[in-house]
Amino acid sequence: MENIPVQDKNGKLLVNSRDTLKRWGEFFCETLNVCALIDQNLIDQIQIPTLSTTEEHRQNAQPSIE
């Protein structure tokens, strides 16, 4: 697994394990850390669901094997 080459952003083949790990770090950083635009009007339109008393008791009950 360590000897599997990957490409950098410019397409250059990376064969050094240190460079490969660095590239994977860059990839996941860019993939997972994205800016998101949030429309506050849409957030305000979300209705918070309400539970019936029976359903609330059922969800708060201790789990059982039955």
Descriptive keywords:
mainly alpha, 66 residues, single chain, 2 strands
General description of the model:
The protein is mainly α and 66 residues long. It has one domain (6-60). Helices cover 45% and strands 6% of the residues. It is built from three helices and two strands; from the N terminus they run ββααα. It has helices at 17-32, 40-45, 53-60; strands at residues 6-7, 13-14. Strands 1-2 form a two-stranded antiparallel ribbon. A hairpin with a 5-residue loop joins strand 1 (6-7) and strand 2 (13-14). The longest helix is centred in the middle third of the chain and has 16 residues, at 17-32. The radius of gyration is 24 Å and the shape is elongated. The two termini are 47 Å apart. The mean pLDDT is 90.
User: Based on helices, strands and strand pairing, what is the structural class?
Assistant: mainly alpha
What is the helix tally? 3
The fraction of residues assigned to DSSP E strands is: 5-15%
The radius of gyration is 24 Å
Count of the domains: 1
Largest sheet geometry: 2 strands, antiparallel
Mean pLDDT: 90
Could you give the order of the helices and strands?
Answer: EEHHH
The low-confidence parts are none
In order across it, which strands form the biggest sheet? 1-2
Helix content: 40-55%
Query: Judging from the principal axes of the Cα atoms, what is the shape?
Result: elongated
Number of strands: 2
How widely separated are the two ends? Answer: 47 Å
